[in-house]
Amino acid sequence: ESPSFFFPPWAAPSARDPPGPGGAARMFGGGFFGGGDGGGFFGGGVPGRFDHQYQAFPVSFAGKEELEKGNKMILPQSALDHLARLNISYPMLFEVQNPGQGRTHAGVQEFIAEEGMCYLPYWMMCNLCLQEGDLVRITNTSLPKGSFVKLQPVSSEFLDIHNPRAVLENSLRNFATLTVGDCIVIDYNQKKYEIEIVECKPAQAISIIEADVNVDFAPPKDYKEPERPADTGAGFKAQVEESEVAEPEPVEDKGPKLFGGSGQRVDGKAIKTPLASPAMGPKEPPNIEDELDEKMPWRKRLQKGVKWVNPPYGFNTGHMSAQKGAAPPPKPVEDLWKGGGQSLQ
After folding, report:
1. Residue 79: in which H helix or E strand, if any?
2. Angstrom distance (rounded) from CA 306 to CA 266
3. Among 192, 189, 188, 197, which Cα is nearest to 217's?
4. Alpha-carbon 57 to chain mean position
5. Which residues of 22-55 are buried (b: 16+ CB within 10 A; e: fewer)?
6. Is the Cα torsion angle 227, 232, 234, 235 positive or negative in sign?
7. Is the pLDDT assigned to residue 26 strictly greater than 50?
8. Which residues, 6+ apart, have CB-to-CB distance to 314 below 8 Å?
9. pLDDT reported for residue 48
């Protein structure tokens, strides 16, 4: 069984795509230990109470680094013996509390810890301000199934993820509960993204095991709205006014001119000014089309050649554009076998 998460349109490639398989797996559902509201061999009756204190250590101390991707802890074998004697509801959910610092909720993965010790994800210890070896109080609890959760990324780098829906759905499979105020950590593409739980419904702490949860997002904490450009109406108007102002006419320089005279030939003949002389002004730019026509005369050829050499050169003689009877009559076909036969006698 898998939880279903419904994401807003911006976080989903297609809002109508069904949620992918997977989710937080059912824990101790049915069978010997019962399931749901306490069925099975130990089902029924008034829920019992589990309340113990343990020394907290990170899950990496037990060689279970993969549990850092969720909120499930490891308890000792004696905890399972105590829980088995109680009429508790399943799946097993717990309230983890550091007196005077805060509280959160978690599930349980295994019962293999040493007596008097428990192993928690390190991000959960940071939320509870716990250090290695500090005492933590763990009590069993029952949480309603969640229907809505609002998340807020701590960093805007989370928006750079290509498909946030798939990343969150895959990451939340490892979580049993969500509590308002917690800052969970999602590991994706060798990066850790912190996401704060802003709102949960129908309670401040919910279970997401086998639940259909609608997910909404708040803007990241360090997100800044893009600055809108200032109104450029006044600036555009000023530019138009400046362009409308007539440019002042250039003032002739009345001072002495260098090289203002004219040259003379030694033989006394008149000087012929070349066409490209600066005195005649700039030369007109060459016509590229004319140059190409000179180099490539076939550019001006008639399409399909010349049909007729006599006027009117075939105009208005076709069956589509000519008037009736305008076409010249066809030449008579000459009979190649005309004449009469002769007899040899």
Report:
1. helix 77-84
2. 61
3. 197
4. 39
5. ebbeebbbeeebbbeebbbebbeeeeeebebebb
6. positive
7. no
8. 307, 308
9. 62
Q: How far is CA 307 from CA 315, 318, 319, 333, in A?
A: 10, 12, 16, 22
Q: Give 186-242 pLDDT, tens digit per residue.
A: 888 888 888 999 999 999 999 998 888 888 888 888 777 777 765 555 555 556 566
Structure tokens at 36: 């749901």
The answer to whether 201 and 212 have CB atoms below 8 angstroms apart is no
* Res 24 pLDDT > 50: no
Which pLDDT score is estimated for 165? 79
Distance CA(254)–CA(27), nearest Å, equals 102
Structural contact between residues 89 and 47, judged by C-beta atoms closer than 8 angstroms? yes
- To the question of pTM greater than 0.90 for the whole model, the response is no
Question: CA-CA distance, 5 to 80, in Å (whole number)?
Answer: 31
Residue type, 55: Q
